[in-house]
Each structure stands twice: as C-alpha cells, then as structure tokens.
C-alpha cells in the first residue's frame, strides 16, 4: 500500500528533485502528474516550491535589469555632480 501511495503521490525527495523541471514545464506525463499531486497535498513541498518560484522570479528580474549605463553618460553625471558641488555654498 505504501508503494501504491508513493506511485500516486510521489515523495518529498522526488518533488524537490523535480521542482525545477516542473516549474519550467519540462516535466511530462506521469512524473508531472505525481509532482503536481504531491504539491497539492504536501504543505512542506508547497512552501519549498513557492520559495523556489520566488527565487526564480528574482533571478528573472535580475536578468531583465537595464544594462550598465554608457561610460560617457557616467562621466557626464560625475561632471554634473562635481559642478554642483563646486557651486554649492561652502
Ligand atoms: Zn512533500
């Protein structure tokens, strides 16, 4: 019976191992079914999966970050800051 339950509901270990594939939609067929079913029933793995998704989305946000400003733009900003510093009352 334990084996049958395991076959239907998966395990914490399998769910943890498959989390990344599951999140990216790479998990197919029976394995996907089992991870989904396990996640639906296991609060511990749900919490882990949520944390995993949060990490994924912050990584994605990092990837979307604007590229570094052009060097000449940095120079211009530094120049302006310097000029403003010079003109401010001492
Ligand atoms: Zn679990």
How would you explain this protein's 3D organization?
- The protein is mostly helical and 90 residues long.
- The chain has one domain.
- Helix content is 80%, strand content 0%.
- The chain has helices at 2-9, 12-23, 29-41, 43-64, 71-87.
- The protein is rod-shaped and about 80 Å long.
- The chain starts with a helix and ends with a helix.
- The relative contact order is 0.10.
- The structure holds zinc ion (ZN).
In short:
The chain has 90 residues and is mainly α.
Secondary structure blueprint with pairings:
Elements: H1 2-9, H2 12-23, H3 29-41, H4 43-64, H5 71-87
Helix pairs in contact: 2-3, 2-4, 3-4
Percentage of residues in helical conformation: over 70%
Topology as a string of helices (H) and strands (E)? HHHHH
- Please identify the structural class as seen in this structure: mainly alpha
Rg over CA atoms:
25 Å
Question: Any key phrases for this structure?
Answer:
single chain, 5 helices, 0% strand, rod-shaped, binds zinc ion
């Amino acid at each position: 019976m334990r084996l049958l339950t395991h076959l239907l509901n998966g395990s914490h270990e399998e769910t943890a191992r498959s989390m990344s594939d599951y999140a990216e939609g790479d998990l197919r067929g029976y394995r996907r079914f089992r991870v989904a079913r396990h996640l639906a029933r296991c609060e511990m793995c749900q919490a882990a999966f949520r944390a995993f998704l949060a990490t994924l989305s912050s990584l994605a946000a990092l990837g979307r970050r604007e590229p570094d400003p052009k060097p000449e733009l940095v120079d211009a900003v530094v120049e302006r800051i310097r000029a403003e510093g010079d003109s401010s009352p001492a």
